[in-house]
Amino acid sequence: MTLSSAAQTSDSDARSQPDASLTPLKVFKCLADDTRLTLMQLLSQGGELCVCELIWVLEQRELDVQSTGASLAAISQPKVSRHLAQLRECGLLSSERRGQWVYYRLPVDRPQWLENILSTACQAQQVEVSRWSTWLDGMPNRPERCC
What top-level branch of life does the organism fall under (predicted)? Predict the structure, then answer.
C-alpha cells in the first residue's frame, strides 16, 4: 500500500480494523486509574452500558466506600465523561449516541490479550464486580434495551 493510497483509506475502513496502536503499555497506562479500570470492568461484564448506568454504579461505589469510613474521590458527571473520553482516545471503548444518552461498549475487534487482561482484572475483584452488577440490576429508571 502506498502512502497516497493509505491516506485515501476512509475513517470507516480504519475503524473496522483492529487498532494496531493499541499496545500493552498504552492499555496499562490507561487502566492505571481506579475509575477507568472500574469502567472497563463494568463494560467487560455488562456488555453495552449507558453513561447514566456507569455514573450510577460509580456513585454507589463511592457511597459504599464512604460507609466503611474510607475515602474515595467524589465522582461527578464531567469527571466520568473525561475518563470515558480518555478510554475512547486510547482505543479501549467505542460509543454510540441514542437520543439523549451515549452508550459505551468495548470494541468488537479488541485483541485477545486485552480480553485476557480484563477477564483477569474482573476475576481478581470478583466480589466487587458482582456487587456492581447487583447495584446495576437495582438501578431505578434504568434505560430499556432495544431488541
Answer: Bacteria
C-alpha grid cell, residue 12 = 470507516
Distance of alpha carbon 86 from alpha carbon 27, whole angstroms: 11
Q: Tell which residue, 128, 144, 95, 118, has the closest CA to residue 24.
A: 118
**Domains along the chain with CATH numbers:** 21-136 (1.10.10.10)
Q: Which three cell numbers stand for residue 76?
A: 461527578
Between CA 49 and CA 45, with CA 108 as vertex, the angle to 5 degrees is: 40
CB proximity list for 102: less than 8 A, separation 6 or greater: 50, 51, 95, 96
Cα separation of 48 and 43, whole Å?
6
φ/ψ of 84, rounded to 5, equals: -65, -40
Which residues have a Cβ under 8 Å from the Cβ of 90 and sit 6 or more positions away? 22, 26, 27, 29, 30
What string of pLDDT tens digits covers the 147 residues of the chain?
A: 333 333 333 333 333 344 567 889 999 999 999 999 999 999 998 889 988 899 989 988 888 776 766 666 668 888 999 999 999 999 999 999 988 888 999 998 889 999 999 999 999 999 999 999 898 888 888 877 643
